[in-house]
Structures are given as C-alpha cells and as structure tokens.
Write a structure and sequence with these properties.
single chain; alpha+beta
Length: 135
Amino acid sequence: MDKKADQIIDSMFEKDSFSQWMGIEVEGFKSGYIKLSIKIREEMCNGFGICHGGITFSLADSALAFASNSRGSVSVALENNINYTKKVEVGDTLIAETEEIQNGKTIGVYKIRVINQHDDLVADFRGTVYRTGKW
C-alpha cells in the first residue's frame, strides 16, 4: 500500500462533495494511478433515457484529479478531451482506470479508459495537468 497516496486520496475524497454525490467508489490506487467506479442512477440520465455524457466525463475527470494529485504536488487540469464509444444506461456500472503517460515536474498527462460492467469501452479520456509545485 502506498501510504502517501492513501492519505492524499482520502483527504481529497473527504472534501469532494461532487464525487460523493456521484457515488464514486475507489477500487484501487497507487501513486500516479487510480481505479474508480460508479453505478448509474436514473437522475444521471438525459432526456433520451441514457446516461448524460457529463457523468461519464466527470468520472474520468475525478480519476484524473485523484491520480495526478496522488504524488503530492497540487495538480490542476489544463486540458481534457473525451471520446464516447458506447451508450450507458441506468443500472450500468462504469469503471475508470488511469494510465500515467507523462509525469513531469510541471506537466502530467493521463489516459483514462472508462469501461462498463461487461468490459466494453464506453469512453476514452485524455487529460493534461499543471503541477503547481505546492504540496
């Protein structure tokens, strides 16, 4: 277990009302990496009865935040993009898993794959963060 990452993620999650509202669960982590999951609820759906893209984006964005900050330097998003590949419905479970592509002193780049409970890719997210140097 990565004690430093554990303390950082616990502290961040405790103050993150939005991730708590979403019902995010931490499935695993280490410095520079996290795996999160959520269960899709009815109030997360749009007028077509499918999960709002903002929910999927927010799950991936939370994964970016936790993974990039887990090393200790306060990191903030510079740029994010997402490609949606499959619809998500009420009752689906989404899992976001990060891959740290670049861990620089001032810039970090992460790829986040979002899959459903059947291991189908539902979104591919890429995020770039600025490391502020604050600890």
